[in-house]
Amino acid sequence: MLLDARNLHISYGDIRAVDGISFSLEKGELVSIVGANGAGKTSILNSIMGIVPLKKGTVVFENEDITSLAAHQRAKAGIRMVPERARVFPRLTVYENLLTGIYGLRKSIKLDVQIPWLYDLFPILRERKDQPAVTLSGGEQQQLAIARALISNPTLLLVDEVSMGLMPKLVDQVFDMLKQLNRQKELTILIVEQNAVASLEISHRAYVLETGTIVHQGAASELLEDPKIKEVYLGTGTQNSQATSS
Ligand SMILES: Nc1ncnc2c1ncn2[C@@H]1O[C@H](COP(=O)(O)OP(=O)(O)OP(=O)(O)O)[C@@H](O)[C@H]1O
Ligand SMILES: [Mg+2]
Question: Does 246 reside within a domain?
Answer without folding.
Answer: no
